[in-house]
Amino acid sequence: MDKNVASHTTHDAEADQRNQDIKIYVNGDILHRSDAKVSVYDSGFMLGDGMWEGMRLYNGVWAFFDDHMDRLFNSCKAVSIDIGMDKQGILDALTQTAAANGMSSDVHCRLMVTRGVKDKPFQHPELSRSGPTIVIIMEHSKPVASLHKAGIRLATVPQIRGLPMTQDAKYNSHSKLNCIIGCLQAEQAGADEALMLDPNGFVNTTNACNFFIVRRGAVWTSTGDYCMNGVTRQKVIDLCRSNDIPVFEKNYSLYEAYGADEAFLTGTFGAQTPVAEIDGKKIGGHDGAGPITQRLQGLYKALINDHVDEMNSIKS
Ligand SMILES: Cc1ncc(COP(=O)(O)O)c(C=O)c1O
After folding, report:
1. What is its EC number (predicted)?
2. Ligand 1: residue whose CA is nearest its atom 4
């Protein structure tokens, strides 16, 4: 890979000094970031035992809030973490935090729920007796433009996505070690981020986003069996279906990925981020987003605008 090309991550945001002074929600308190702390006995810190959601605020509306809550509540139920509040309680906490920061647009939030503070520094979940720890970090956040101009360089890595009976990739858990190892391996290969395969060697996902290719006018992504059930992934699939763009959730190999006309990543932060190269092989004949990626970027923007208008009209 060309070492002279500036490296990116899929979460590169424009520098914003205001983020040094944000207020953070910690279990009902709103604290300056320098005072926002959790215990060293917290299950999230000690064991990665917690779940989180990344969401974006557009004109006062948390985009696709219900989808994010479905995933969070499903994950917490599956691992017996009692969030201690319902969806409305979470929305109120988000609204309170946004108001304390004077934020309404171009905001990214990380909502974290852990099993809470442990009595002793051991693994057993029974030792977490305090009730959950809930933290909301909101930052002023705009993806850097260069991400969309240059695209991301991926490297296929030895670290794979596992079977659901090890640690189901659908858990947006605090422990992201599987993804972090993948990302480190990609960096060692001189790329920006990792392209991860499934246990059968089919192309699955990247360490932080879902992965799509475009081949001969059709959009392909993995079956979804070994990757995060991304909210943006599903929106892109739905948009393809409602706009007569052929879309397939299927097994495919690096052979098809290398020969793709376009490739892009999806995630709440970056929406659809173009992929420039995989394992040093340039994808497509264009720079930045290819024509179908651009079309999907436009459709997704319109979808967000409609969703935000609809939610704001319900509020008023
Ligand atoms: C590993 C992984 N894949 C994909 C995604 C994208 O999901 P979403 O579109 O819901 O932001 C995330 C985001 O949390 C993730 O952690």
Report:
1. 2.6.1.42, 4.1.3.38
2. 209
The pTM of this model reads 0.95
Among left, alpha and beta (phi > 0; psi -120 to 50; other), residue 282 is beta
Instruction: Tell the residue nearest (CA) to atom 6 of ligand 1.
Output: 267
Residue nearest to atom 3 of ligand 1 (CA): 209
- Rounded Cα–Cα distance for residues 178 and 188 (Å): 16
3-state secondary structure of 258: helix
| Contact between residue 13 and residue 141 where contact means Cβ atoms under 8 Å apart | yes
* Alpha carbon of 229 to ligand 1 centroid (Å): 7
Query: Atom of ligand 1 at shortest distance to CA of 169?
Result: 1
Class of 17-140 per CATH?
alpha beta
- On the question of a common fold for 17-140 and 145-305, the answer reads no
Find the 85 Cα to ligand 1 centroid distance in Å: 23
Round to whole Å and give the CA distance between 127 and 179. Answer: 27
Domain at 145-305, CATH class = alpha beta
Burial class (CB in 10 A: 0-12, 13-18, 19+), 241: exposed
Closest residue CA from atom 15 of ligand 1: 208
Tell me the average confidence (pLDDT) per consecutive run of 10 residues in the chain, 316 residues long: 61 87 98 98 98 97 98 98 98 98 97 98 95 98 82 97 94 97 98 97 98 98 97 98 98 98 97 97 93 98 97 90
Check: CB of residue 195 under 8 Å from CB of residue 252: no
The ligand 1 atom nearest the CA atom of 52: 14
**Ligand 1 pocket check for 233: Cβ under 6 Å:** yes
Q: What is the pLDDT of residue 246?
A: 98
Our CA angle for 153, 245, 312, nearest 5°, is 85
Q: What is the pLDDT of residue 147?
A: 76
- Residue boundaries of the structural domains of the chain: 17-140, 145-305
Please tell me the distance between residue 77's alpha carbon and the centre of ligand 1 in angstroms. 19
Regarding the beta carbon of 228 and ligand 1, being less than 6 Å apart is answered: yes
